[in-house]
Amino acid sequence: MESATPVIVAIDGPSGTGKSSTSKAVAAQLGLSYLDTGAQYRAITWWMVTNGIDTADPFAIASAAGKPEIVSGTDPEKPAITVDGLDVAGPIREQDVTSKVSAVSAVPEVRARITELQRAIAGSAVTGIVVEGRDIGTTVLPDADLKVFLTASPEARAARRSGELEGADLHATREALVKRDAADSSRKTSPLAKADDAVEVDTTDLTLQQVIECVVTLVEEKRAGR
Ligand SMILES: Nc1ncnc2c1ncn2[C@@H]1O[C@H](COP(=O)(O)OP(=O)(O)OP(=O)(O)O)[C@@H](O)[C@H]1O
Ligand SMILES: Nc1ccn([C@@H]2O[C@H](COP(=O)(O)O)[C@@H](O)[C@H]2O)c(=O)n1
């Protein structure tokens, strides 16, 4: 691959494995765009909740799936997301959205809508893009130049998440992560899964900097055609 060719990097994995932190840093370091697909699923979930759609009713979600306009920024230095022109970067991280996002993202009409957006964004990235999520290597961008699947023990992931939230209970955080992963892995449409040709990186005992260096090296090797 020549360096002028846009490079497409897919980074998947369960919750708290370091996908966002790694993807943003790798994209910034290599001058690539960045797309947080979890933020898109959170944004559509936020819209459903805000508009009184019952998130336990897949038919109600399916019929509303085409309504919100979701726009994602792709600058890794300042990721942005709007719904119908409103900045929702803060609200989409709230607990209510986190607890409902797996149910909303399991609805095939939601996935079809968001997948189309993701492919359009990736297709228009001039230098290339790092796209992170759960089904990027398997479904959204199966021809990605590099696929990475990040993992880490539930204990390490819970400790990382608890560190972000003052006073968070480690056991409850671990249970919530495991529950969300189980829902995301067991849905029928495009579940959380490692692509057969993805490079698996267990980040349990690695620092964030080590994971970033590892992925940057993998991208550079691809670019060099090795
Ligand atoms: N290798 C690492 N060592 C220690 N902490 C890390 C490591 N990777 C990420 N972190 C920290 O763990 C937390 C979760 O990371 P991040 O948000 O990147 O994970 P994620 O996989 O994108 O999670 P989610 O899918 O839930 O959005 C952050 O506070 C981040 O700084
Ligand atoms: N490609 C993706 C990305 C995310 N999801 C769903 O969104 C949830 C939130 O993701 P975060 O990365 O922000 O934690 C996640 O739990 C999935 O339900 C998805 O389905 N596909």
TrEMBL record:
Pfam families: Cytidylate_kin. Keywords: ATP-binding, Cytoplasm, Kinase, Nucleotide-binding, Transferase. One of its GO terms (molecular function) is kinase activity. Its EC number is 2.7.4.25. It catalyses: CMP + ATP = CDP + ADP; dCMP + ATP = dCDP + ADP. Its main location: cytoplasm. It is found in: Cytoplasm. NCBIfam families: cmk (TIGR00017). This is Cytidylate kinase. The gene is cmk.
